[in-house]
Design goal:
- By secondary structure, the protein is of the alpha+beta class.
- Helices cover 28% and strands 24% of the residues.
- It contains four helices and five strands, in the order αββαβαββα.
- The chain has helices at 3-14, 54-64, 90-98, 120-123, and strands spanning 25-32, 37-41, 70-78, 105-109, 115-118.
- It has a five-stranded mixed beta sheet.
- The chain starts with a helix and ends in a 7-residue tail after the last helix.
- The relative contact order is 0.18.
- The structure holds tetrahydrodeoxyuridine.
- Residues 19, 22, 24, 26, 42, 44, 51, 53-55, 86, 88-89, 92 line the site of tetrahydrodeoxyuridine.
């Protein structure tokens, strides 16, 4: 998939987000080592800490389907129909890191039609791993 296609997939699944508490919708689309694409959106809960991030959903779907490695992950966030740059939260940086290497690309849609591409080292330098 092209970056544009992956961003469009993330934008589309963002519309499915369940986020009545924050009204901040997030969609994530990732491509694994086999070219398969997995989607996730944030799912909030009345007991706030039980909510989950879009990236976590996409990663779970990849693992459940047998995928092992994130080649590219695109993230789109924002209120309602709008988009606002949404770099992954700290916990999701560590989640993405688990299935990444130095070539993994993290694409984040900006406030406008452009996007930024990061590496894992940009987002989580000196990261923890076993
Ligand atoms: N959120 C994500 O889904 N991914 C992130 O990386 C940042 C935050 C969600 C969690 C919550 O439902 C909403 O955005 C506001 O924090």
């Amino acid at each position: 998939m092209t970056d544009e296609e992956l961003l469009e997939a993330a934008r589309a699944v963002k519309e499915k987000a369940y986020c009545p508490y924050s009204d901040f919708h997030v969609g994530a689309a990732l491509e694994d080592e086999n070219g398969n694409v997995y989607l996730g959106c944030n799912v909030e809960n009345a007991a706030y800490p039980q909510g989950s991030c879009a990236e976590a959903g996409a990663i779970s779907a990849m693992v459940a389907a047998g995928g092992k490695h994130i080649v590219t992950i695109a993230i789109v966030g924002g209120s309602g129909d709008g988009t606002r740059a949404c770099t992954p939260c700290g916990g999701c940086r560590q989640r993405i890191h688990e299935f990444s290497d130095e070539n993994t690309r993290i694409i984040v849609k900006d406030d406008d039609d452009s996007w930024h591409t990061y590496t894992m080292d940009d987002l989580l330098p000196s990261s923890f791993h076993l």
